[in-house]
Amino acid sequence: PDKAVAAMQEAGPHSLEELNRIISGSEPLVPGATRAVLGEGPVGAAIAFVGEQPGDQEDLQGRPFVGPAGQLLDRALAEAGIERSATYLTNAVKHFKFVQRGRRRIHESPTAGEVKHYRWWLERELDLVRPGLVVALGATAALALAGKAVPVGRNRGLFRFGDRPGFLTVHPSSLLREPDPQAREEGFRRYCEDMRRIRELAA
Ligand code: URA
Fold first, then answer.
1. What ipTM goes with this model?
2. Structure pTM?
3. Tell me, what's the pLDDT at 9?
């Protein structure tokens, strides 16, 4: 790793801007990403949502949750009456990892080692944002926040990530991958229920 980055990590960033400069200046662990996609939203937000990593659209636009999974998340937030712009949105891993297939860039899940590498940043980021409730969207976010693998199905709901009050639910892309329309609908309904609970918990 870059010596200047290592030195700054040693001292610890004192603001989100400083942390974001470190993140933006770092090379992706796996080459290919256009840029680091930073968290978005106000410091002191009642809710912070943590996803897995930026996707194709997020990498191109430089914003979290703007692709198909983000649009589904937006619909669930709207259904639950959560104002997206009042929340903080970020990812466990800040760079898009993919394999090129012709002209398409196909998402590849980060390894546990990659998640661990980015974990320092995520922890500092949440220390600086100080959200009331941290929501893990899916297993990668749960791994990053808990520091160990947490099965989502069995632990869905209220969950403590160290000293952070949290909530664990599925990643929106798991709903997009569901082939059966009825199951997809049911999955979305349950997702909206989770979001309503999250809103109540964070109120
Ligand atoms: N999926 C994620 O986990 N994060 C994003 O920002 C977009 C899709």
1. 0.93
2. 0.94
3. 62
**End-to-end distance of the chain based on CA atoms, in angstroms?**
41
- Residue nearest ligand 1's atom 7 by CA: 65
- Whose CA is closest to 94, among 165, 26, 162, 12? 26
CATH topology (fold) of 3-202: Uracil-DNA Glycosylase, subunit E (3.40.470)
Question: Which residue positions in the chain have pLDDT lower than 70?
Answer: 1-2, 5, 8-11
Q: Are strands 104-107 and 47-51 parallel, antiparallel or unpaired?
A: unpaired
pLDDT of residue 8: 62
Probe target for ligand 1 pocket from 65, 108, 145, 169, with the most ligand atoms within 8 Å of CB: 65
Phi-psi region of 147 (alpha: psi -120 to 50; beta: other; left: phi over 0): left
> Taking the domains of the chain in order of start, what are their residue ranges?
3-202
Query: What is the Å distance from ligand 1's center to 54 Cα?
Result: 4
